[in-house]
Design a protein that fits this description.
The chain has a two-stranded antiparallel sheet with strand order 1-2. The chain is elongated and about 65 Å long. The protein has 107 residues and is mainly alpha-helical. The model has no long low-confidence stretch (mean pLDDT 88). It has one domain. Helix content is 68%, strand content 4%.
Length: 107
């Protein structure tokens, strides 16, 4: 029976280390493309990278080993930074921010 944890797209990896290296490289590449402006900083683009990070975590049954943890955590931090650089605001939050702005103008 094939190990589903070692599968990504149409590829089956011979080791979890090979899967980890490939996923971390692809995630880093996506973030670099966003930073360089070759890809837009959109919710969908960031979600692709998040999906890969979550796939990696599932491959390790929830706990990424120490040898990959700093890179893994760094990539999550980069995604968090990109989210805050994006101009997208959830409609509900935008409404709340607009109301707060109006209230502050009247104080």
């Amino acid at each position: 029976m094939e190990d589903m944890n070692l599968k990504y797209k149409d590829r089956i990896f011979v080791s979890i280390e090979q899967l980890s290296e490939t996923l971390l490289h692809e995630i880093n590449e996506q973030i670099l493309y966003i930073d360089m402006g070759e890809k837009k900083n959109t919710h969908d683009q960031r979600n692709q990278a998040k999906f890969l990070l979550m796939h990696l975590q599932r491959a390790y049954k929830g706990t990424v080993p120490t040898q990959y943890r700093s890179t893994y955590n760094s990539l999550w931090s980069q995604l968090y930074r990109l989210e805050h650089q994006d101009e997208f605001k959830h409609p509900y939050l935008k409404t709340l921010f607009d109301k707060i702005h109006v209230i502050r103008e009247h104080i």
